């Protein structure tokens, strides 16, 4: 538990900062940028290795055939990494940005695929880059329909912060004027291809409450001065994003917030710094700093600050608080009511549909678009009217396969080869992104016996689906099938991946936001109720999951909380 | 010059590339010494792949692209042991069909004889034939020549156009 007086005596000029940010991913990057812009001396702690924009993207311009396994990975690597291998983006071109299973063990009380990126920039290098604002319905529905506590903030409160981060990040998309998916500050939108547009027309004309519109993503379609100032250029439609982008075409901490914060002269970065715990001082009732274990030497050190931001990623932020024990908080920092680590939720991706579309065959496309078509949630929007709670967003896209399809005619020879070289009919892929219900029983906790090589207890996951998820899945598959049928698709088939939670890489909660300290961990400013100079602004603070890709909301919450925290220094 | 001398001299057709500490020969099949396949299996595989995806007006055939040499390295690295053996035994079954049909050296047969064999193989429903064929297609269409000549490859498209008229002979994008 440590003696705080002893810790205080370790303070010196080199280990003391105004603010400490734990984590350098998409939310930590934003906190650092905002604090540094306000002149606040900030230390960013990253448990992984240093990864710098451009310099550390070894595969960014490698042609596909130059990889030994051409997108695949050796069998022994897959066998040693069953968890990482289940991630769609884990391949020979990207594996260096993913945590290997055996490097960082955890305990799965129930199956949970934890996909991690331990390096400077975290998973902002390897995220899917889809960015939509929450609507007022996502904030209001959980309490309205009784499946979570009331969000202490409204859409209107967060809207200016969405605008603030969107302008810096650069979001491509349309202004669709939809109440279910509020408009962002947008750069020009990507185009739909002809088949996607035909299907969209069918959906938009066939259903008054459904809107098929082009996706919004963190890609620079028309860089503005603010992006040029970051050294970022236009997205080149290569769609090799998971390798790191040599153009800075998509937003990451590495290409955006971190170099920006460094330029202010107010940022210190320490990589290979595994945060063990946050140090709590009972006298001031505040955190005074953090205890860090060096990843390589295993040496212990301490860093001190006036405020601490916890942005380690949902599960690891829970881990740090659970491991921050003191006489005052024996069950984890600010955890007086056994809320910490509980009410975790995630996104439901199990359902998908595939189909073919045999019209618009005179049209093709060029370039590789980094987004798809989205249909904002149309279930339980204004009132609870489905046989499940929450909602789901639907995405679809179409493309034309070549050699990896069945062709007519002779199955060998010159004609066969020629046929395989041509684009086939349109392949349609449709998927869901569903809300799951935050439940007390879906939780993470520390192993009482096992620790990792840095002496930190292993995290144990106990997170699972429930009946609500099954009902939502059936609804999506039925509705998706109907939409594709009406649009004239053939060979429609339904799929349930049965993937474990975690593989969505959208785990949220555990340190949820709310007004009542007995049922939540942080207040509306993302501050711990009982330790008010510690802020949590990553996915861990989410009281419900919404149906949107979450990163944009984490960024907006981070910027908003940083503004609030900066008042400490006025 | 035999194969071993050729590989020692590393002729113009071969190029040693290193990716992630792993050495790889990229070369046409006829200057490569197999490690995973037996020489006989390898020769047959290369000739069979050429029958499946022969040289045509606008793009090289499977042999020139190095389908067999790629698979000789890719299969033992990336396939689980069971599938590795499956691929080999399928190849043995095909060779047996061919030899029983009076064949000797597939690569040197006449076009008619090759077509006869392919008809025989395609209709024989050998277990494991589909995966073998898929492996050959993968090796061919993900090779440099496959992507740039049989298909179209644009490393830096610059933009996405959603509606481009498709001509009768337009090729598909490699990625």
Q: Strand portion of chain A, in percent? A: 15-25%
User: Globular, elongated, flat, extended or rod-shaped: what is the shape of chain B?
Assistant: globular
Largest sheet of chain A: 8 strands, mixed
Q: First CA to last CA of chain B: what distance?
A: 39 Å
Order of helices and strands of chain B: HEEHHHHHHHE
- How much of the sequence lies in strands of chain B comes to 5-15%
Cα-based radius of gyration of chain A, to the nearest Å: 24 Å
Adjacency order of strands in the biggest sheet of chain B: 1-2
Short structural description:
The complex is a heterodimer of chains A (570) and B (175). With 570 residues, chain A is of the alpha+beta class. Helices cover 23% and strands 21% of the residues of chain A.
Topology:
The complex is a heterodimer of chains A (570) and B (175).
Chain A: H1 4-9, E1 16-22, H2 26-37, E2 42-45, H3 75-80, H4 82-85, E3 107-108, H5 136-144, H6 155-169, H7 194-206, E4 213-214, H8 225-229, H9 253-263, E5 267-270, E6 273-281, E7 286-294, E8 300-310, H10 314-322, E9 342-345, E10 347-348, E11 351-357, E12 363-366, E13 373-375, E14 392-400, H11 414-420, E15 426-435, E16 443-451, E17 457-462, H12 467-486, E18 490-496, E19 508-510, E20 527-528, E21 531-536, H13 551-566
Helix pairs in contact in A: 2-9, 2-13, 6-13
Chain B: H1 3-9, E1 15-19, E2 22-26, H2 39-52, H3 62-65, H4 67-78, H5 81-100, H6 111-124, H7 129-141, H8 144-150, E3 161-165
Antiparallel strand pairs in B: 1-2
Helix pairs in contact in B: 2-4, 4-7
């Amino acid at each position: 538990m440590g003696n705080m007086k002893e810790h205080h005596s370790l303070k010196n000029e080199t280990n003391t900062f105004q603010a400490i940010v734990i984590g350098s991913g998409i939310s930590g990057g934003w906190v650092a940028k905002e604090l540094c812009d306000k002149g606040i001396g900030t230390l960013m702690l990253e448990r992984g290795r240093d990864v710098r924009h451009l310099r550390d993207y070894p595969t960014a311009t490698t042609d596909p055939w130059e990889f030994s396994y051409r997108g695949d990975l050796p069998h022994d690597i897959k066998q040693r990494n069953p968890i990482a291998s289940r991630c769609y983006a884990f391949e020979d071109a990207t594996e260096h940005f993913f945590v290997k299973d055996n490097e960082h063990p955890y305990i799965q009380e129930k199956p949970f695929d934890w996909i991690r990126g331990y390096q400077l920039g975290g998973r902002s290098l390897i995220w899917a880059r889809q960015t939509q604002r929450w609507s007022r319905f996502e904030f209001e529905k959980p309490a309205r329909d009784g499946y979570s506590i009331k969000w202490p903030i409204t859409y209107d409160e967060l809207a200016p912060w969405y605008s603030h981060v969107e302008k810096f990040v650069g979001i491509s998309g349309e202004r669709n004027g939809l109440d279910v998916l509020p408009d962002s500050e947008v750069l020009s939108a990507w185009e739909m291809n002809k088949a996607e547009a035909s299907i969209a027309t069918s959906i938009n004309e066939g259903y008054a409450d459904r809107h098929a519109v082009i996706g919004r993503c963190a890609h620079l379609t028309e860089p503005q001065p603010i992006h040029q100032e970051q050294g970022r250029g236009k997205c080149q439609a290569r769609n090799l994003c998971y390798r790191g982008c040599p153009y800075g075409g998509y937003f990451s901490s590495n290409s955006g917030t971190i170099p920006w914060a460094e330029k202010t002269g107010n940022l210190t970065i320490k990589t290979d710094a595994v945060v063990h715990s946050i140090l709590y001082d009972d006298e001031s009732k505040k955190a005074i700093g953090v205890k860090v274990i060096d990843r390589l030497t295993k040496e212990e050190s301490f860093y001190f600050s006036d405020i601490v931001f916890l942005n380690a990623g949902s599960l690891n932020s829970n881990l740090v608080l659970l491991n921050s024990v003191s006489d005052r908080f024996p069950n984890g920092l600010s955890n007086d009511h056994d809320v910490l680590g509980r009410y975790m939720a995630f996104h439901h991706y199990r359902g998908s549909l595939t189909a073919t579309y045999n019209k618009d065959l005179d049209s093709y496309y060029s370039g590789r678009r980094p987004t798809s078509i989205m249909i904002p949630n149309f279930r339980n929007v204004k009132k609870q009217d489905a046989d499940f709670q929450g909602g789901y967003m639907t995405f679809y896209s179409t493309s034309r396969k070549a050699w990896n399809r069945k062709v007519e005619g002779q199955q060998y020879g010159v004609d066969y080869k020629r046929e395989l070289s041509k684009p086939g009919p349109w392949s349609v892929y449709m998927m869901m992104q569903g809300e799951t219900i935050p439940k007390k029983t879906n939780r993470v906790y520390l192993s009482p016996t096992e620790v990792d090589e840095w002496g930190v207890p292993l995290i144990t996951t106990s997170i699972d689906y429930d009946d609500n998820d099954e009902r939502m899945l059936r609804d999506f598959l039925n509705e998706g099938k109907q939409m594709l049928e009406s649009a004239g698709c053939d060979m429609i088939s339904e799929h349930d991946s049965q993937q474990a939670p975690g593989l969505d890489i959208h785990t949220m909660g555990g340190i949820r936001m709310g007004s009542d300290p007995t049922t939540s961990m942080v207040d509306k400013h993302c501050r711990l109720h009982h330790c008010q100079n510690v802020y949590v602004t990553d996915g861990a603070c989410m009281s419900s999951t919404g149906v949107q890709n979450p990163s944009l909301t984490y960024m907006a919450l981070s910027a908003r909380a940083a503004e609030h925290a900066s008042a400490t220094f006025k | 010059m035999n194969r071993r001398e050729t590989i020692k001299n590393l002729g113009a057709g071969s190029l040693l590339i290193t990716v992630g500490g792993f050495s790889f020969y990229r070369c046409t099949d006829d200057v490569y010494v197999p490690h995973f396949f037996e020489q006989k299996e390898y020769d047959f595989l290369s000739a069979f792949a050429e029958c499946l995806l022969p040289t045509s007006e606008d793009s090289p055939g499977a042999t020139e692209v190095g389908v067999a040499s790629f698979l000789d390295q890719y299969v033992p690295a990336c396939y689980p042991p069971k599938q590795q053996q499956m691929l080999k035994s399928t190849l043995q079954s095909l060779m047996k069909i061919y030899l029983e049909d009076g064949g000797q050296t597939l690569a040197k047969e006449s076009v008619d004889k090759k077509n006869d064999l392919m008809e025989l193989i395609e209709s024989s429903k050998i277990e494991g034939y589909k995966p073998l064929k898929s492996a050959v297609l993968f090796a061919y269409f993900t090779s440099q020549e496959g992507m740039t000549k049989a298909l179209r490859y644009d490393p830096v498209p610059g933009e996405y156009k959603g509606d481009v008229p498709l001509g009768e002979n337009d090729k598909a994008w490699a990625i």
